[in-house]
Amino acid sequence: MLKQLHDDSPLFGSNASFVEGLYAAYLQEPLSVSAEWRGYFDALQKGEIPVESGKRPARPAAAAQGLETVREERLLTTERKQIAVLQMINAYRFLGVRHADLDPLQHYDKPHVPELDPGYYGLAEADMNTVFGTGSLFGPPRASLREILQTLHQTYCGKIGVEYMYITDTEQKRWIQNRIEGPRAQPDFEPEYKRHILERLTAAEGLEKYLHTRYVGQKRFSGEGGESMIPLLDNLLQRSGQMGVQQLVIGMAHRGRLNVLVNTLGKLPADLFQEFEGKHAQDLTEGDVKYHQGFSSAVSTPGGIMGLSLAFNPSHLEIVDPVVQGSVRARQHRLQDRDGDLVLPVLLHGDAAYSAQGVVMETLNLSQTRGYGTGGTVHIIINNQIGFTTSDPRDARSTLYCTDVSKMIEAPIFHVNGDDPEAVVMVTEIALDFRMQFHKDVVVDMVCYRTLGHNEQDEPMVTQPLMYKIIGQHPGTRKLYADKLEAEGVIDSGTADRLVKAYRDDMDAGRNPNKTIVYGYKSPNAVDWTPFLKETAWDAKVSTGLPLVELRKLAERLTDIPSKFKLHSRVEKIVSDRRLMGEGKLPLDWGMAETLAYAALLNDGYPIRISGQDSGRGTFFHRHAVLHDQNCERWSEGTYIPLRHIKPDQPDFVIIDSVLSEEAVLAFEYGYATATPDELVMWEAQFGDFANGAQVVIDQFIASGQAKWGRLCGLVMMLPHGYEGQGPEHSSARLERYLQLCAQYNIQVCVPTTPAQMFHLLRRQMVRPLRKPLVIMSPKSLLRHKESVSSLEDLVDGGFRNIISDMEELDPKKVRRLIACSGKVYFDLAAHRRKNKIEDVAIIRIEQLYPFPHDDFQAEVERYPHARDILWCQEEPRNQGAWHRIQHYLLRHKRADQVLGESLRPSSASPAAGYLVKHNEQQNELIVSAFRERI
């Protein structure tokens, strides 16, 4: 009778998987199933049996057809229990991680999770030998409840805990289930590979102990307690190489970094020891501490030699994440690796930083976008269960796990006990395979501990006494694993000690025992930066002009729009005007000059990448690099990009309306630019002050990257700047901050005032054999200013002018004052002079504020021999803008008989006035003051 019951019930046999799928969907969203099934599941959930006139309960017709009537009560009871079993399987997939054995310290009690108790579903000891359908649970289609529970507990509550049921894609969930439930989350490696894991653990522990005894008290941010990270990375490198990955880029903070440098990337211990002893010759301007340094090497894998790069990073922890993504995207672009099969990003995180720092979320958000995706990242969290000196997870995050932020992109999460290196390696293999299969981010959360304090001078017992009592008694991962292998007969007694001694002998000799490292390897895909290493290139005179015939030809390509493409009326007028500009019938505006610069660079063979929150159109409706068909909104069909049609087989032109982020996007573009010197890489802020949200990137990478790490970068930042009465948040790009960062010829800061200047400036950035970051204070109202225009002929000869001399017909001998300024204020000064017919004041524009053009400015001073004073005029308040930096240059060049003056807004805590009337009053006063006689 029981067999007949199983055969007849819609919840058994061939229907089981179907019903389970419906039931799983019902549990997540009841409204996703039909009303008939919903009512049925509701009744079973509540234990209510809707019977009509003693007949069997109403059941969905599709399931009821063809079924014979059996004894009602027995059938219903069995069906309820079968549903309960399926529900319990589902619960283990969702919540089994809560009971997983993840903590090597056993520091916290496991929470009570009623959904993992069979009694929660009305299942008792009497049901343990009853055979139920297992649905989609990997294994036999039917098994006893006892066997099902053993399978679930072993799979989801062992040393591995998995979170993945929130993933929408059924194929991805089934893939994970097969990989986890098939082997019941139990590693199975050959003895030879187990010995290799032990050797890597020995190396990880050996380096830390060697440094701890040889360099007592020196900071190194030890990785002790997380030694399984080294066999994890070893497996990841070898397996990814076997799968065809040619380059792997790693980003990580300082915890355990020295261990990765030596034991994974192959840095020679002798070189590391010299750094500890202060003997390492520094070729860099300033250099950086050893646990921030990057490194490049190569390893031999079953798939061939693979290039490795560890990105340089500051102490700002997770800020390196988007930098790595940008570097990877550039490498993929160079290799035409559109799917991300050849270049793999790997990010190592700390648990506290991963959950707390917003740039992590921003970077995750980039992962599946068109402009920033890299085909998926392998995230590895070295989970010390503590952040700096935080003693309680309740003070570190508001989520249950530090990895919960990963769920926003439906990345699967594999938690694993760091004291089980085989389990660590197993989940690493699964994670990598998932990434390569589905090209999505994946997370490995290796739960371990931190043997020492935050650094080697910190005493952790002060704030975590109980945790560190446990840690003090912990034998260490290597010892535990060595004892396990000896008990299994994989190694002989004494083998583990011999490995320890062998590694120490290698350290004494300063050699690296990692046999996979390929020293002296030169990748055929490596970028040659040597043409850009000459600092004398600052003074290189390069011509950035183009013949008139070529400019007109480029203008034709830019304004040749497909006939069936319906433009917006305003855009159609802009394109029509640009056509006339190209014919020399209208003066050039900023949008046309900038676009011609891009076209010319593309024509010369330079790829271009531009990103920003409104880059395609331009925040101020001036660029229109991406045209939109008014009859179609589908991006793939409804857009036309003229700059992609300059010539056959031209380089790529990529322009991206970025996600609403400054920090991650700017860091991404910085990383991209550091990997591709022959591509113009630009980031445009929607308003210049929006760059405030990316200040860490500017300070720690863009301004100081070369001084600290020797990293060249030609990134261009366009920051709209100008005081036009738009209030505190939309006036200043904070020019003063960039000038404060200027030193040792690290960056360029320019304020172009004409379209031709922008044309030549962008061209110079690529044509000149120099790769330094360029910060452009770009215009807003000047984009349409009637006097801020250029002719086509202005693009023919010469190049960018660091200083623009006064164009008024003044007698130099009659000039009593020389006004120096930058940016939009020039046009206000010139208008006032014209209106009041002032003929004894000269105005010059300093278009490059850093490096300051000393020779050019000295020539201007000498041009006016009778000028009694030099005055600096700026729109910004006294405590902002260029004044504090520029006055030192002006003092250097003024004659002894001259006085230095200034005309600017009063010092202010706010960048600009919020009321238009007040703004106009201030603006008028500083213009009038610039011409006023001084006593």
UniProtKB/TrEMBL annotation:
The GO cellular component terms are: cytosol; oxoglutarate dehydrogenase complex
> Domain Transketolase-like pyrimidine-binding: where?
588-785
Q: Which GO terms describe its biological process?
A: glycolytic process; tricarboxylic acid cycle
Q: What is this protein called?
A: 2-oxoglutarate dehydrogenase E1 component
Keyword Ligase included in the entry's annotation: no
InterPro entries assigned to the protein according to its UniProt record, in alphabetical order? 2-oxogl_dehyd_N (IPR032106), 2oxoglutarate_DH_E1 (IPR011603), DH_E1 (IPR001017), KGD_C_sf (IPR042179), ODO-1/KGD_C (IPR031717), THDP-binding (IPR029061), Transketolase-like_Pyr-bd (IPR005475)
* Statement: the UniProt record of this protein carries the keyword Oxidoreductase: yes
